[in-house]
Amino acid sequence: MDKIILTGDRPTGRLHLGHYVGSLKRRVELQNSGGFDKIYIMIADAQALTDNADNPEKVRQNIIQVALDYLACGIDPTRSTIFIQSQVPELCELSFYYMNLVTVSRLQRNPTVKTEIKMRNFEANIPVGFFTYPISQAADITAFNATTVPAGEDQEPMIEQAREIVRRFNATYGDTLVEPEILLPDNSACLRLPGTDGKAKMSKSLGNCIYLSDSESDISKRVKTMFTDPDHLRVTDPGKVEGNTVFTYLDAFCRPQHFMQYLPEYGSLEELKAHYRRGGLGDVKVKKFLDAILQEELAPIRSRRKEYEQDIPAVFSMLRQGSETARTVAAETLDKVRHSMRIDYFNDMDLLTAEYGKNE
Ligand code: ATP
Ligand code: MG
């Protein structure tokens, strides 16, 4: 069986460090590893509209932002197909059939959707499209026969839902769909990168992000005001590393060579943490270290982005081509699905030529 990747992001803003460590960086590594037969990367505009129905302009404007972030990070359109979800209408039809295989109570149990409903104050008025987006995500994944979905931890319930739909579909209509697996980041700090305010998750909707396209000074500002240990008031006070955002980011981004380069008096992150715990190490010093690391990581991404920004029509042309390729693949899956469900009437010669009532 081919090894196929499908992942994506909602065009609700530029991409941030959470996307980068949770999924984007991994996608680039997997793309460059050559270990996958096909890679599809979807800009999920239809999904973004499920909670932005009154603001299509926001979604429209952010398509190019997300595409530029992809290219800047090293997604290569000659090796990965980048496409726009709404330009592949086959996905809607698949979702419509999958809806029959899922119950309302099953959707209500999805912990990620539950949290998101609260975050958006949707409790009393959930748009049906938003409530059912895990089903549409199953359509996105299965349309491309994806075996692997590199994503952050918040996506686990979605992939589980997709797997259930596949099993239910195959059991009901015969073996048709491929069951996907989630590929989580290896580094536990990257599973769900917190926001700079220390809140549970860095998220476009919460405004606690460091964006991949932020300027040098924006990054420094964000790091300076980053949440640390609120009880670590004086340099001499012992500090807490757990739940301290600066240290979580160091867990995610710091590599051994960074010490030699920027903080040679320490040999490892463990040493730095031990000093902070004992007391005598100030937040400012740790933040400066993190700032240097982030600047190093993001500078090449920012400069590549500037290059791609010079030719926006070329980026849209790439997206158009990617969407056409994606549509062809999704249409093949849809044909198979219709055949399995026995709703491909006009291809069924037995049905078309059946002779009823001749011998009565
Ligand atoms: P929104 O607030 O509009 O939902 P978002 O910031 O949550 O946006 P998504 O487009 O929903 O971003 O997520 C895209 C991908 O990035 C998913 O695979 C998700 O798991 C991953 N991701 C997003 N935020 C984080 C994070 N803070 N840590 C790890 N992975 C993340
Ligand atoms: Mg999200």
Automatic annotation (TrEMBL):
Record family assignment: Belongs to the class-I aminoacyl-tRNA synthetase family.
Enzyme Commission number(s) from the entry: 6.1.1.2
Signal peptide positions (record): none
Pfam families attached to this UniProt entry: tRNA-synt_1b
Annotated organism of origin: Alistipes intestinihominis
Keywords noted in UniProt: Aminoacyl-tRNA synthetase, ATP-binding, Ligase, Nucleotide-binding, Protein biosynthesis
Gene coding for it: trpS
Highest taxon of source: Bacteria
Gene3D superfamilies documented for this protein: HUPs, Tyrosyl-Transfer RNA Synthetase
UniProt lineage: Bacteria, Pseudomonadati, Bacteroidota, Bacteroidia, Bacteroidales
Protein name, as recorded: Tryptophan--tRNA ligase
Gene Ontology molecular functions: tryptophan-tRNA ligase activity
CDD domains linked: TrpRS_core (cd00806)
